[in-house]
Amino acid sequence: MNSFADQPTGIFPSVCSLDCPDQCGLLVHKENGKIIKIEGDPNHPVTQGNICNKVRNMTHRIYDHERLQYPLKRVGPKGEGRFEQISWEEAIETIAKKWKSLIQTDGPESILPYSFYGNMGYLNAEGMDRRFFHRMGASLLDRTICSSAGSKGYQYTMGGSFGIDPEETIHSKLIILWGINAVSTNMHQVVLAQKARKNGAKIVVIDVHKNQTGRMADWFIPILPGTDTALALGMMQILFAENMTDNDFLEKYTVGHEELREHVKQFDPASVSAITGIPVEDIYKLARMYGETSPSFIRIGNGPQHHDNGGMIVRSISCLPALTGQWLLQGGGAIKGNGQHLTHDANKLQRPDLLKNKNTRIINMNLLGKALLEADPPVKSLFVYGSNPAVVAPSSNKVRKGLARDDLFIVVHDLFLTETAKYADIVLPATSSLENTDFYKSYWHHYVQLQQPVIEKYGESKSNFEVFQLLSKAMGYEDEALYETERQMISDALHTPYLKGIDYERLEKEQYVKANVSPPLTKKLLTPSGKIELYSEQLKIKGLPPLPTYTPLVEEDQFKFHFVPAPNHNFLNSTFSNNDKHLSLEKEPRLHINSKDAEKLGVEDGETVLIWNNRGQCELKAAVGENVLSGVVVTQGLWADVSEKKYLVNSLTPDRIADMGGGATFFSGRVNVEKIAKE
Ligand SMILES: Nc1nc2c(c(=O)[nH]1)N[C@H]1C(S)=C(S)[C@@H](COP(=O)(O)OP(=O)(O)OC[C@H]3O[C@@H](n4cnc5c(=O)[nH]c(N)nc54)[C@H](O)[C@@H]3O)O[C@H]1N2
Ligand SMILES: Nc1nc2c(c(=O)[nH]1)N[C@H]1C(S)=C(S)[C@@H](COP(=O)(O)OP(=O)(O)OC[C@H]3O[C@@H](n4cnc5c(=O)[nH]c(N)nc54)[C@H](O)[C@@H]3O)O[C@H]1N2
Ligand code: SF4
Ligand SMILES: [Mo]
C-alpha cells in the first residue's frame, strides 16, 4: 500500500501533536497533495469530532508563506534576523565541525540542548535527540518549565501522575476546575463537564481571573494568586470539624489523617479569608458543598503550580478527595496529570546508558538566562528544538542577553524563524508533525495514538529524528542505537506492562487504542507507604513541611500588583503567535485590571498602560472591570515580537525556582502599572 503521504487525495487519520491534554484524533482531508481541511475524528471517543479553533486553522500554519524551507546561516548581527540560504550538507558540516572543536577544547558539557514539547511525539521530542546528546556527553537539561512543581506535589500525595479516567467525569455531581482555564486549554474536559451538568452536576471554578472558563461556571470563586493551599486547608478544617470526612476511607487508604486533623485546626475560615480574599461564608459554602456532594471531581490546572509555593498548592489540593473518600466512586477523585498510567519504556527510548559521565552537569531550563550568562564552565553552544525560549522562558531579557553572546554558537531547528531563531548561527527547517512518524500518549485521557506521515515534507525540512541521525553520522558516532528505525524505536518503547496489548501493528490498524488502566487505589500507590500520604515523610526529609502548609509568595513588595501572564485561547504558548490567521482571531493582548485600581491610576478601559518592574517592561491596553480582584493584574498569551509592540510579558517574570520539582514561577511576580501620558 502507498503511504498516506503518497496519496494525493483522501481523508487520513492523524493526531494533534500540540502540548495540550486533549490530544485529539484528527482527520486530515487532502486534495491534489495539499491539506484542505483538518477536523476532529468523530469516532475518537474523547475527541468526538470536536477540535479547537487553533487546529481547525492549522492549515494556515502548515502552508504559511513564512514557513522555513531551507537551512539558513546568519549574515547579520544576532537577533536582527538576516540570513542566507545554505545546503543541508553545509549546515550539518558547520555544526559538526564547531562541536568537534568545542569537545576538544572545552569538553562536551560546553554544549547544551534546549528543547520542549512543541511536538509531543515521543520519537521527536525525547527519542533520537536524547540518544544523540547522551552519546555526546552534552550538558543535561532539566525540563521543568511546564508542570514539574505540580507533578511533584501531586506525587507526594498520590505517588505519581495517576488520576481518574476523564471519560468517567460525566458521572460526577460536583466538578471543581481549580486553576485551569479549561475552555481554552482542556476543552474536552469542559464537554464532559457539560454532560455531567445535564445530569445535575454543578461546576465550580476557582481562579484569579474570571476568564471564559469562570464565565461558564455555576459558581466562580476569585482567589488571590498563590493562596490556594490556605483555601484547601480551610476546607479541610471545616470537613473535619463538621464530621463530613469518610473516616473508614481515611483509616484504610491514607497515612497521617490524625496529624492532619490536628494541623488544620489553625486554618479557621476567618484566617483563610484574610489570606485568600475569599469571604468567610463562601469558604463555608464551598467546604459544605464539597463535603456533601458525591462523586466530586477536581481538575487541578497548571496555573496554581506556577508559583513560588506551587508544588505545595497541588500537594494540598490533592489531599481533598481522600478526606471524603472520593477515589472509590465512579467520577470521584482528581486529575492533575495522568501520564504515568501510560508509562512507556523511557530507558529504551532515550538510552541514558549511552551517557558515560554519570556526573554530567544538569541545567534547569528555567534558569536559561543565568546559565548562558554565568555558568562556569561556560555554555559555548546551544541547540534549540521544539521550543522558543526567547519568548516563553522566564526573565526573558536575561535570556536574550545570553542568546546575544557573540561567543555562543546557536543552532535552532524549527518550522519558523522564531525570535529565538533570530539569534542562531544556523537555522534548520523542521517538518510539521503531519509529515512524520511518531507515537503519542495523552497526559489526560488514556489513549495511545500513532502518527504516520500524511503529507510530503515541506521544502527541504527534516524531522528531529532525521536531524539527529544526520548529526550522528557527521560526528562520526557509530553506535547502533543512533541508526535504528522509527518503527523499531516505537515498538520497543511501547513494550511495558502499562501498555500491554498495544503495539505498532495494532496502532497502525486501529490508530488509537485505550490502555487498560487500573484506577488509583485498585492497586498499591507508588508512595513509600503504598497509601495516600496526607503526611509525607519524604517531604520532611527534603526539608519541607510534611503536612500541607501555606507559605506566602516571595516578597516583591516594592511593586504594587500581582502579575499573572497566562496562556490565551488562540495560541499554544508562542505557537501560532506568528500566524496571521491566529493573530487576527486573538487581536491584541489586554491587561485585566480591577476598576477600583484603574480609577486610582486614572486609567480608563482601552487605554495603553506601561507595566514594569526591575526585570523589564511591557505596554498593553487596559481591560478595566471586575474580572480580577483588586491588587491583581492578568494578561493572556505569549506574543511574538509583532512589529514595534512591547508585548514580551516574560520580560517581567521571575526566574526564581518553585518549592518543588525545579518548577517555574511565572505567576509569582509583581509589577507596577502606570498610565502612559498622552501626547
Ligand atoms: N489555548 C491554549 N491551550 C493550551 C495552551 C495555550 O497556550 N493555549 N498551553 C498548553 C500548555 S503547555 C499547558 S501547560 C496548559 C496550561 O493550561 P492550564 O492548566 O489551564 O494552566 P494555565 O492556563 O497556565 O493557568 C490556568 C489558570 O490558572 C489561573 N491562576 C494563576 N495563578 C493562580 C493561582 O494562584 N490560583 C488559582 N486558583 N488560579 C491561578 C490563571 O488565571 C489561569 O486561568 O494548557 C495547554 N493548552
Ligand atoms: N508567561 C508565561 N510563560 C510561559 C507559560 C505561561 O503560562 N506564562 N507557560 C509555560 C509552559 S506551561 C510551557 S509548556 C512553555 C512552552 O514553551 P515552548 O515549549 O517553547 O512552546 P511553544 O512556544 O509552543 O514553542 C514550540 C516551538 O516548537 C516548534 N516545533 C513544533 N514542532 C516541532 C518539531 O517537530 N520539531 C522542531 N524542531 N520544532 C518544532 C514550534 O514551531 C514552536 O516554535 O512555555 C512556558 N512559558
Ligand atoms: S490543541 Fe488540544 S483541543 Fe486543539 S486539536 Fe489539539 S489536542 Fe485538540
Ligand atoms: Mo505547559
Task: Describe it.
This protein has 679 residues and is α/β, with parallel strands linked by helices. It has 26 helices and 27 strands. The strands form 7 sheets. The chain has a 6-stranded mixed beta sheet, with helices on one face. Strands 22-26-23-25-24-27 form a 6-stranded mixed barrel. Strand 2 and strand 3 form a beta hairpin. The protein is globular and about 70 Å long. The mean pLDDT is 97. Bound molecules: ligand MGD (2 copies), iron/sulfur cluster and molybdenum atom. Residues 19, 146 line the site of molybdenum atom.
Average pLDDT score: 97
The main sheet comes to: 6 strands, mixed
- Overall form: globular
Uncertain segments: none
Q: Could you say which structural class the secondary elements and strand pairing correspond to?
A: alpha/beta
The number of distinct β-strands equals 27
DSSP helical segment count:
26
| Distinct ligand kinds | ligand MGD, iron/sulfur cluster, molybdenum atom
Spatial ordering of strands, largest sheet? 5-4-17-16-15-6
Strand content: 15-25%
The rounded distance between the terminal residues' Cα atoms is: 68 Å
For this entry, give a set of tags.
679 residues, alpha/beta, six-stranded mixed β-sheet, six-stranded mixed beta barrel, globular, binds ligand MGD, binds iron/sulfur cluster, binds molybdenum atom
Write the layout of secondary structure elements.
Layout: E1 10-15, E2 25-31, E3 34-40, H1 53-56, H2 58-62, E4 72-74, E5 83-85, H3 88-106, E6 111-115, H4 122-126, H5 128-136, E7 140-142, H6 148-158, E8 174-178, H7 182-185, H8 187-198, E9 202-207, H9 212-216, E10 219-222, H10 228-241, H11 247-253, E11 254-255, H12 257-263, H13 269-276, H14 280-292, E12 296-300, H15 310-317, H16 320-323, E13 333-335, H17 346-350, E14 362-364, H18 368-374, E15 381-385, H19 389-392, H20 396-403, E16 409-414, E17 426-429, E18 438-441, E19 447-451, H21 464-475, H22 486-494, H23 504-510, E20 512-514, E21 532-533, H24 537-541, E22 561-566, H25 580-586, E23 590-594, H26 595-601, E24 608-612, E25 617-625, E26 632-636, E27 669-675
Parallel strand pairs: 6-15, 7-14, 8-9, 8-12, 9-10, 11-21, 12-13, 15-16, 16-17, 22-26, 23-25
Antiparallel strand pairs: 1-2, 2-3, 4-5, 4-17, 18-19, 19-20, 22-27, 23-26, 24-25, 24-27
Residues 19, 116-119, 124, 145-146, 302, 385-388, 392, 413-416, 418, 430, 433, 464, 565-567, 572-575, 638, 649-650, 653, 666 line the site of one ligand MGD.
